Amino acid sequence: MNGQCLCGKIKFEVEILNHEVHACHCSMCRRQTSGILMSIDIKPESLKIHDDSFLSIFDSSEWGERGFCKACGTSLFWRLKNNEYANVNVFALDTPRHDFQLVTEIYIDHKPAFYAFSNFTQQLTEADIVALMKTE
């Protein structure tokens, strides 16, 4: 699948692993996007940035980093520093598929009380995610 940032200076292609969308409620994603970051898992090695001159990488944690466009600020991807796991902003994809489904909410213990999704999702806490990242 192809994708791009808001201004089009960064174009990329990826191979998605499934059709499962994840919503992240962590404070970093909420601050970065002014909302919830919705992402989809990709094969980490499949992420191909066509011209990385506008790509910026933010070292956001001990194990993870975020890629974004330094011209328009679009959040593009999050990945483990060891490149064993990666996901992309589902809304940065050029043609989101109709069969995508919101299945997981992560950092659910950080979600503000003033919003909620109406569909059932798997809900993982910060501790759940930290444990998963340390095993990968």
Automatic annotation (TrEMBL):
Q: Please report the stretch or stretches of sequence annotated as the CENP-V/GFA domain.
A: 1-99
Instruction: Keywords in alphabetical order, please.
Output: Lyase, Metal-binding, Zinc
Which GO-annotated molecular functions does the record name?
carbon-sulfur lyase activity; metal ion binding
One protein family per Pfam: GFA
Q: Which InterPro entries match?
A: CENP-V/GFA (IPR006913), Mss4-like_sf (IPR011057)
**Similarity field:** Belongs to the Gfa family.
Q: Which PANTHER family match?
A: CENP-V_GFA DOMAIN-CONTAINING PROTEIN-RELATED, GFA DOMAIN-CONTAINING PROTEIN
The identity of this protein, by name, is S-(Hydroxymethyl)glutathione synthase
Natural source organism? Acinetobacter equi
